[in-house]
TrEMBL record:
It comes from the Bacteria. This is GNAT family N-acetyltransferase. Keywords: Acyltransferase, Transferase. GO terms for molecular function: N-acetyltransferase activity. GO terms for cellular component: cytoplasm. PANTHER family: ACYL-COA N-ACYLTRANSFERASE, GCN5-RELATED N-ACETYLTRANSFERASE 2, CHLOROPLASTIC. Residues 1-140 form the N-acetyltransferase domain. Coiled coil: none annotated. SUPFAM superfamilies: Acyl-CoA N-acyltransferases (Nat).
């Protein structure tokens, strides 16, 4: 496997396809180029067949690093690649006072095993509030 930590040679259409099959939803290539380009840390993993994993972290250099968009191709799921991507982004984020992420419902156990703890005070405003409610990402109190 080849690991890359920059956006130099990324095929954004290939990354968009990875998001669809992972499945993390339909994210257009142009949007992924923007969000990865604005992320402090990025991670792309390739095998002989192409891109099989990716992730990124938004970070301010001192206080907070936010891990997001961890994607693993189905042919590599269960191999430990997702764990390795998270660990690489955590290592890159060393020195930040806190490293956070939010997990899709049902994936919390995976992140608990990697040392993350549940937050009791996390709040969010989603652009598509109804979808966030329907998928269990947020709850109305």
């Amino acid at each position: 496997m080849e690991w890359r930590e920059d956006c130099e040679r990324v095929d954004w259409e290939e990354l968009s396809a990875l998001y669809r099959v992972a499945p993390l939803g339909d994210k257009p290539a142009r949007d992924l180029a923007v969000v990865y380009g604005n992320s402090r840390y990025v991670c792309f993993v390739y095998d002989e067949q192409g891109l099989i994993g990716a992730g990124r972290a938004l970070a301010d250099g001192l206080d907070c690093s936010y891990l997001c968009d961890i994607a693993v191709h189905p042919r590599a799921q269960g191999s430990g690649l997702g764990k390795a991507i998270v660990q690489r982004l955590v290592a890159l984020s060393t020195g930040h006072r806190k490293i956070i992420l939010y997990a899709n419902p049902g994936k919390e156990g995976f992140y608990l095993k990697l040392g993350f703890l549940r937050m009791r005070t996390a709040m969010a405003i989603f652009g598509n509030r109804e979808r966030a409610l329907a998928t269990g990402l947020v709850a109305e109190d």
